[in-house]
Amino acid sequence: MSACKRLLYVVKHRSLWAQVRRNVTTWSPVGAAFNAKPHRRLDLFEKNGLFGVPELSCPAGFQAAAKTALKNTQRLVEKACSSPPGAETVECFDQLSDSLCKVADLADFIKVAHPDPAFREAAEKTCVDIGTVVEKLNTNVELCKSLKNLLDNPNIVAQLDPDTRRVAELFMFDFEISGIHLDDKLRKEAVGLHVKLLDLNNEFLVGSHMPNRIARSAIPEHLHLHFASEGSFIQVGGLHADSPDDLVREIAYRIYLYPNADLMNCLEELLKCRHKLAKLVGYESYGHRALKGTMAKTPGQCISLTAKDFKMMRDMKKKLNPHSEYLLYLFLCSGLSSALYRYNIEPSLYSPYFSLGACMEGLNNLFSQLYGVSLMSEHPSAGEVWSEDVRKLAVVHETEGLLGYIYCDFFHRSDKPHQDCHFTIRGGRWCQETSQYQLPVVVLMLSLPHPSKSAPTLLTPGMMENLFHEMGHAMHSMLGRTRYQHVTGTRCSTDFAEVPSILMEYFATDYRVISQFARHYETGQPLPESMVARLCESKKVCGAADTQLQIFYAVLDQIYHSKPQNRSTTDILKDMQQKFYGLPYTPNTAWQLRFSHLIGYGAKYYSYLMSRAVASMVWKQCFVQDPLNRDMGERYRREMLAHGGAKEPMLMVEGMLQRRPTIEDFVDALVSELNPNFETFIMDSES
Questions:
Q1: Scanning 92, 379, 495, 504, which has its CA 20 to 30 A from the CA of 28?
Q2: Is there a catalytic annotation at residue 648?
Q3: What is the pTM of this model?
Q4: Integer Rg of the chain from CA
Q5: Catalytic residue among 135, 470, 498, 639
Q6: Does domain 19-46+337-541 have CATH number 1.10.1370.40?
Q7: Closest to 431 in 3D by CA, of 488, 471, 375, 500
């Protein structure tokens, strides 16, 4: 390059270099990576498949991947049925599970996240095909017999290590709840119901995220900019709970929750099929079937937990004056963020201190201090990701090396669900065939605003907390080192799976953690101490409303999955809302049709309450004195995160707390979250 050209190059890119130099001195590498705008990839000749899977460079690749998985399935089934009973049998079952899950889990994510309809359709078909095979395997008598021969032999069982025995029992549990004990005719009926439920689950899940639309003329023109446009219609794809505008929230609430007749029929049929299946395989209700093997054990325990919580909440509400009652109403109907906005926290004042890069830097610092783990930004290969703004993180331990990968699909897309989620793409396991550990791969999906021309993505306090929550799931997957894929990371009891994510919410609202990373994206100035204190106090105050909301959801979920009610899901909603929510039902709305947790958390939504109780106890006993204590972080990993589902959840809790909690302990933990200075705090906010 000539001297003249070099000069022009420097002048042309002077502002860029100044920005890079400023970022280098201000942010860590991971912080700088997430505050920078994504670069368009120009790899014209290189073309990899999604997540580095060669077949998935085009939609047709899903069929090829499924074909390979099914071929492996046949081989492994034959091996399991012919091998003598022993640890090798369990290893064979886990390989079988891994072969299917690596295709099904990836497809499960792509069917909702990929912007190309052809990829989504191919992935959806693969999910159904693999799911159908899994249900048939769960009623395969010969396959079950090979496992039963192992578990029925006390001499062989005595030789198994605890993890192998636990995984063997979990596989047997899958056979039992699928109806393996039934005769041929009834087993076929059970498989048919399973397959039908796969279709209904998918239909409801997709429908629950679809936007509703209304004529543009039906909405005041000055509000059009708050919603997506579709010709002469306005699309409403969410509740807009973060909006400070009352009318925007009301419009969103009424339109987004307007009943869809087809989706209503789908939900009604789904609940009937679940109950019929549960009765067929020998359970009193779907709730009884779903809760076997959890910490709660039975629907009765769930109801006990929620009823006791609700009584405590009602007693607390009676102590509030009308002013505070009105505030609680706003919390419940408008959402946590908008209530904070109106009565305490102005999000726009906090957002400049919570750039996405700053928050990622905070997470990196936290994990480094607790676990000796760093988040390293990597450039994905062409074709490896489904959208140009997806970031890839390598999770690296200071002595153990690479632990796994996290793909960060953080930004809003019109065809993407408006729900924060964690997806397991590949589970970790020890591979005897290669003598290496199969590294876990996960995706975190958020719906954050894109960076602007003048600023990086700026998060509200609520968005920041959600990011920490989902990263808790990711680290559960990364820090586990289970021998078997079937119990890797978040593949554990549902009422334990939310503990790591909810515990991260406590870190996200602790002043010592926030003070480490919250700084202005332009000036580098830290968030003022008074604002940090206000934010942390706000979280405590909101505990009452948040807990009551969870109680309502949990009770509704349990009623839907108990014995048939002989009334519509909307009638049940009205009744439960009156009893456990304290707010009147809004006519011509059907909130249950947006309750997508009914799919993945059917009869298990109480898990959020149970997990919050456990997280509260862990926080107060182990971290509240020093949230950055390395010894406690290592203990937390050793006792709770490392095992995935390979250990009974209550044993993990007991190991961490050094005692075995009761239902009363869980209730007390939740009630202790309620702030006794609620009224004083609100009056102070107004002044």
A1: 504
A2: no
A3: 0.87
A4: 26
A5: 470
A6: yes
A7: 488
